[in-house]
TrEMBL record:
Pathway noted in the entry: Cofactor biosynthesis; pyridoxal 5'-phosphate biosynthesis
Residues the record marks as active site: C82, H186, E188
Residues the record lists as binding L-glutamine: G50, E51, S52, R111, I141, R142
EC number: 4.3.3.6, 3.5.1.2
Catalytic activity field: aldehydo-D-ribose 5-phosphate + D-glyceraldehyde 3-phosphate + L-glutamine = pyridoxal 5'-phosphate + L-glutamate + phosphate + 3 H2O + H(+); L-glutamine + H2O = L-glutamate + NH4(+)
Domain of life of the native organism: Bacteria
Name of this protein: Pyridoxal 5'-phosphate synthase subunit PdxT
PROSITE patterns per UniProt: GATASE_TYPE_1 (PS51273), PDXT_SNO_1 (PS01236), PDXT_SNO_2 (PS51130)
Keyword set, alphabetical order: Glutamine amidotransferase, Hydrolase, Lyase, Pyridoxal phosphate
Subunit record text: In the presence of PdxS, forms a dodecamer of heterodimers. Only shows activity in the heterodimer.
Family, as annotated: Belongs to the glutaminase PdxT/SNO family.
Protein role: Catalyzes the hydrolysis of glutamine to glutamate and ammonia as part of the biosynthesis of pyridoxal 5'-phosphate. The resulting ammonia molecule is channeled to the active site of PdxS.
InterPro entries documented for this protein: Class_I_gatase-like (IPR029062), PdxT/SNO (IPR002161), PdxT/SNO_CS (IPR021196)
Organism: Asanoa iriomotensis
Length: 207
């Protein structure tokens, strides 16, 4: 078992540095991944927040899309936050027609689902499986939500909140399927390391 697992952070676009810092604090060796060869050395991958349409485009242009898809098909642990969640979905709503996603989690996500008027907000979200009973202080920035999940997907967290349609309803914002974890929100911005800690444990368990 790897003592300090090597966790890559998809680094063609998005808030890479904050994830590197959080992963390092959780006992991983965190390395940015920009080229396909850099993927060979990692035990797990984080896809950060940013802009999923740009991530999709750049990952194809830089030859990273297919190597990542292959590692995911082979069971490499992955954590996607916000745009990263969109990149892991099997179906993306309100995306660009040419936008690609890895389908590592059987879920349909809607981009920018909480509406554009209040496009960023913070809220406490109870997340199953984290140490302690405290809800996670979640930061949402033009966040997606999970509209439906398929077999084998565990819902870890949801929030009661109005969507773009103004209707307050529970919306799924944290899920896990096997070695793939995704959140609509940005734990790397809060100093709460419990989600990164969970992911590093998932990488250790898979190594
Ligand atoms: N709205 C962005 C997208 O569609 C995600 C925003 C974020 O990652 N903070 O990719």
């Amino acid at each position: 078992m790897t003592v300090r697992p090597v966790v890559g952070v998809f680094a063609l676009q998005g808030d890479v540095r904050e994830h590197v810092r959080a992963l390092t604090a959780c006992g991983a060796d965190a390395v940015p991944v920009r080229r396909p060869a850099e993927l060979d050395d990692v035990d797990g991958l984080v896809i950060p927040g940013g802009e999923s349409t740009t991530m999709s485009k750049l990952s194809v242009e830089f030859g990273l899309y297919d190597p990542i898809a292959k590692r995911l098909a082979d069971g490499m642990p992955v954590y996607g936050s916000c745009a990263g969640m969109i990149m892991l979905a099997s179906t993306v709503l309100d995306g660009r027609p040419d936008q690609r996603s890895f389908g590592a989690i059987s879920m349909t996500v809607r981009r920018n689902a909480f509406g554009r008027q209040v496009d960023s907000f913070e809220a406490p979200v109870p997340v199953a499986g984290l140490a302690g009973d405290d809800p996670f202080h979640a930061v949402f920035i033009r966040a997606p939500w999970v509209e439906s999940v398929g077999d084998g997907v565990t819902v870890l967290g949801a929030i009661d909140r109005a969507g773009a349609d103004g209707v307050i309803a529970p919306h799924v914002v944290a899920v896990r399927q096997g070695a793939a974890l995704a959140t609509s929100f940005h734990p790397e911005l809060t100093g709460d390391l419990r989600l990164h800690g969970l992911f590093v444990e998932m990488v250790r368990a898979a190594a």
